Amino acid sequence: MISRTRRRFLQYAGLSVGAPRLATLPAFAAETFPSRALSLVVPYPAGGASDVTARIFGESIGRSVKQQVVVENYGGGTGAIGANKVLAAPADGYTVFHGSLNEVFLSPLLNPATRYKPQDLMLAAPIGGSNIVLLARSGLPADTLDKFLDLAKESKGMSMTYATVGIDSFYHLMGEALGARIGAPFLHVPYKGAAPALAALAGGEVDFAILPYQSAFDSMQGQGRIKILTSFAKSLPAPIRHIPLISQSRQVPDFEYAIRGGYFVRQGTPAERVAVLRKAIGEALAKPEIRTRLEAEGRSVAQPIDSQAQANQYFDQYMGSVTQLIRSVGRKPVA
pTM score, two decimals? Predict the structure, then answer.
């Protein structure tokens, strides 16, 4: 039997006299995040531009959060396979998506079989963009973009073939738009990522490729294996200013495109965990040595952000640019 003094103590402490002891214990403090390794999902095979960038960021993020960051590659489906891996995981912040306009927006907006919407993912922080280049096979008799376009227009009944990272990718739509612009449609050949597409180009299996720039392209050009004909960017970081800009073309000087990306998590991830990730990403973006490494790979580097509201603004901008590209090639977004 509980004494009067004991009863008064329990009531003062806000505890129920008749409740079991375990029910009166306070809830455990929230789990320190992260308390284990993070998975950084890259939606393309190892060796491509996305993979290289993810490993640069993963190394820094791991140091910031004091946990290992494991890069996981899932190629195929124009990035949708990787996105689905993230969406199948718990919304707990431990699975992060190295995503871009391709996988987060284009796949669900163009492919009815893609079973997710852009809004199923939320942007934790932008990281910048990749400079897109047009590469030609070494044996193609054209050393400039304009000569390449002239050659394409002269190919009577034989469409030039081009490689990209997949059907309905940003690069695929750019190829369609470029072909329509010059009146010489191209034949698209999709691959599961930039690495196999580049291998196909170097092997002479396709005439050209539209891919995000990698520093390896320069050495391949030096070896006579491929030709870098143009960048579709308005401007380039210092390490790659030797590449001709699209503005130098006399035929399509305004055909400017860049692909943006960032780190996404599944919608519903706790805000405080997203904030931890955003801070770690911002710390990576602020490091001069990381910016130097990224610019050497042809990346434009975003400035750190400090709020979800800012991240949401970037998300909306991405959606707008993708929708505009889709409509420019006569397509309609999936309802």
Answer: 0.82
